[in-house]
Amino acid sequence: MDTTTYGLDIAKRVFQMYWVEPETGEIMNRRFSRQQLIEFLGQRVAGRVALEACGSAHWWARKIAALGHEVILLHAKFIRPFVQNNKTDAADARAICIAAQQPGMRFVAPKTADQQATLALHRLRSLLVKSRTMQVNQLRGLLYEFGVVLTAGRVAGLADVRERLHEVEQVVPGTLFDALRDQLQLIDRIDGDIKKLEKQLATWQRQESACKKIAGIPGIGPLTATALVATIGNPAAFKSGRELAAYLGLVPRQTGTGGKVRLGGISKRGDNYIRMLLIHGARAVLFKSKNKGPWCDQILLRRPVNVATVALANKMARTAWALLAHDQTYQHDYAAMRQAA
Questions:
Q1: Are 233 and 112 in contact (CB under 8 A)?
Q2: 64, 17 in Cβ contact below 8 A?
């Protein structure tokens, strides 16, 4: 008997499922509540349940897999072409089912609860960093309106305003000065929250063997290591390191017609947060590292700085996949050892 494929369109309270009964060939497109859906899938013979990789999709993937079904997640852009006419829950469920059965369709690997929690910590930290930047910029701008110019840079600027609080108090009206002092305390609290989250991520990095494997790659620190491992999940989900680099948007965008293919800038697909971490790490290697290696020196001679930075970020991602997929540790002189062998 062929495995039944279900197309499941999920929401907060209403769930639509499309499938074809294998015995009768009857087309089914039913709406369920949350509890009704769990009970229905628990009673059905194990099949393939396809979902769109959207909010709560990874939780549903783990829940449905626990009921004995195979779960596959699809990117929304791969589903949209199969939606006919108007977009409704029923049309979406049908499109998901059809898209999941297409040859060569690419799927999103479901994440574990730990991987999701790690990425959630990164999102919380990212929001706090953004909030801190906004607070510091506002403080700098408000003081500038009263003729107080702070030293450039976040750390130096905050240290400067604390040293000159007496001067600021003389220049700024009392009502505003109290508010500015409260804003400085708020920035300190945000700093403390950021450090607390970074400590939690560092603890997870020390406990996770995959993070230890890739942490030795130049340019990959605790933040990049934890975010990359949590994003990759199972390295077997990618056929090669290049496929991971393409998933992260670090490969050239291709356009072609009439047998001629043109390469443009990087595609910038995938998670821009991971891509940002890799590119910042690559830039740190190129301009801060004392022993960046001959590969970096040669590419800087042949290519512009930004192109070389992205190329190194691409190389870092592919190296990380190779270490995780083949269960190896990073060796700085690996290329030289292969040549000698």
A1: yes
A2: no
Instruction: State how far the Cα of 151 lies from the Cα of 173, in Å rounded to an integer.
Output: 22
Pair 235, 336 in one domain: yes
Q: What CATH number should be reported for the domain holding residue 73? A: 3.30.420.40
Radius of gyration of the chain from its Cα atoms, rounded to whole angstroms: 26
Report the mean per-residue pLDDT for the chain.
92
CB atoms within 10 A of CB 324: 24
Residue 284 to residues 193, 218, 312: CA-CA distances in angstroms? 25, 9, 11
pLDDT digits (tens, 9 = 90+) for 102-161: 998 989 889 999 999 999 999 999 999 999 999 999 999 999 999 999 999 999 999 999
- The SS3 of residue 46 is coil
* Cα 221 from Cα 281, distance rounded (Å): 8
Strand (E) or helix (H) holding 339 = helix 334-340
Q: Give yes or no: residues 71 and 93 share one domain.
A: yes
pTM of the prediction? 0.88
Task: Please determine, for residue 38, whether its predicted confidence score (pLDDT) is greater than 90.
Answer: yes
Residue at token pair 């074809």 = 20
The tokens of 184 are what? 């400085």
Has residue 226 been placed in a domain?
yes
